[in-house]
Amino acid sequence: MESIRSWVKKTLEEIEKKMMENLELKEMIKISAEFTKFKEIDELIDEYFNLLDERELWEQEPGSEDEITKLDSKIEKISNEIIALLLPDDEFRDRNVFLEIRAGTGGEEAALFAGDLLRMYLRYSERMGWSTEIIDESKSDLGGYKEVVVRIKGKNSGTYMKYERGVHRVQRIPVTESGGRIHTSTATVAVLPEMKDVDVYIDPKDIRIDTYRASGAGGQYVNKTESAIRITHIPTGIVVTCQSERSQHQNKEKAMMVLRAKLYELARKEQDEKLSSQRKNQIGSGERSEKIRTYNFPQNRVTDHRINLTIYNLQAVLDGDLDLIIPKLMQYDIEEQLRELGVIQSI
Question: How far apart, in whole angstroms, are the C-alpha atoms of residue 292 and residue 163?
C-alpha cells in the first residue's frame, strides 16, 4: 500500500499542476473529476494507515481480539474500496449477468458436464445471495444440457462471474463408457453483462420475431399456446430464444435483454481486436476458445490454468465452493492491472 500511496500523491501533484493551466471547459471538467477521484483515494489511504496504527496499539492490549477483528474488517473494506477506485471502469461492474453454458466436444458426456457446471453455478449463486432464473434451455437425452442460459441477479455478480468465461474441461469415466476408460469432454461458458435500452439500441427493423410452442414445464398449457419467442437479429445473424414464462410478452422482454447483451459482447470483441493485446492478456478477457480449467475426477483435482492453481477437492468446487478459486483469480487480475497502470512494481 505504501507504493500505491506514493503513486497517488504524485498523481495528485500532476493533476493540480494541470488545473493551473489554461484549459478548455471540457478538459477542465475531466481534470476536475480526476482530481476528485484521486483526492478520495488519498483520503482513504490515510484512513487505511490510521487504522493500521490503531490495530498495532490494540495488539498490545490483552483481551482485545474482538476489537482487532473489527479493525481487520474495516481495513479490508477500505483496501477493497481503494483498489476498486484505482482500477479502470469495467463493463461488468454493478451489472447483472447472463450465464450461457454450451456442451462442447464429447457428445452426451459433454452435455452431462454442462449440467454439472450449471448446478455448480446455481449453488455458488445461492452462497453469494444472488437470485437465478433459467431463461432458455435445451436438454440432452440423458438429462444433461446441450445449451442453457441463466440470468444471475445480485450485488457484484458480474465482478465475480466474469472469471468463468472460457472452455471448461472434464476428465472422467463417462456413464456411457462400458470399458472404464477415462474420456475428456468440454463445455463452453460465456458470461455477458446485462445491458439496458440506453446502452445498446436495437432498431426494430433489424429484428425478426417468431413465436412457437414452448417445451418444458407447464403441462398441457405449453402445448396449446405459442408463448415461446425466437428473435433473430438480421444484420449479425444472432438468434436468441426464451420460453421460461407463460406470457409471450415476458418472454420477448427477456429475449431482448439477452440479445442486447450478445450485441454488446460482439461490439466489445470487435473493439478489442482493434486495440493492442492489453485486454487479451488479462485473465478476465474470457475468449470462448481459451481453456481455463480442468476438472479431473480420478485425481480429485481441479486446476485453473490461468494462474496454475490446483485444488484437490473436486467435489467441494462442484458443490459451488468457488471461493476456493475466484478470489485468487481476482487478486491476480487486480495486481496485473495495477502493474499495467504503473501503480505498483509488485505487491
Answer: 9
Q: What is the pLDDT of residues 229-272, one digit of tens each?
A: 999 999 999 999 998 777 888 889 889 989 989 998 888 777 66
What tens digit of pLDDT does each residue of 48-70 get? Answer: 999 999 888 888 888 888 888 88
What's this model's pTM, rounded to 2 decimal places?
0.72
Residue 26: band (very low, low, confident or very high) from pLDDT cuts 50, 70, 90: confident
CA distances from 248 to 98, 195, 239, 245 (A): 20, 21, 17, 7
CA dist 307 and 108 (Å) reads 30
- Grid cell at residue 143: 438429462
Rounded distance, CA 56 to CA 49, Å?
11
Three-state SS across the chain?
A: CHHHHHHHHHHHHHHHHHHCCCCCHHHHHHHHHHHHHHHHHHHHHHHHHHHHHHHHHHHCCCCCHHHHHHHHHHHHHHHHHHHHHHCCCCCCCCCCEEEEEEECCCHHHHHHHHHHHHHHHHHHHHHHCCEEEEEEEEECCCCCEEEEEEEEECCCHHHHHHHHCEEEEEEECCCCCCCCCCEEEEEEEEEEECCCCCCCCCCHHHEEEEEECCCCCCCHHHHHCCCEEEEEECCCCEEEEECCCCCHHHHHHHHHHHHHHHHHHHHHHHHHHHCCCCCCCCCCCCCCCCEEEEEECCCCEEEECCCCEEECCHHHHHCCCHHHCHHHHHHHHHHHHHHHHCCCCCC
- Longest CA span, the chain: 78
Confidence of residue 215 (pLDDT cuts 50, 70, 90): low
**pLDDT exceeds 50 at position 286:** no
Q: Which three cell numbers stand for residue 285?
A: 478477457
| Reported confidence tier of residue 102, pLDDT bands at 50, 70, 90 | very high
Could you give the CA distance from residue 91 to residue 94 in angstroms, rounded to a whole number? 8
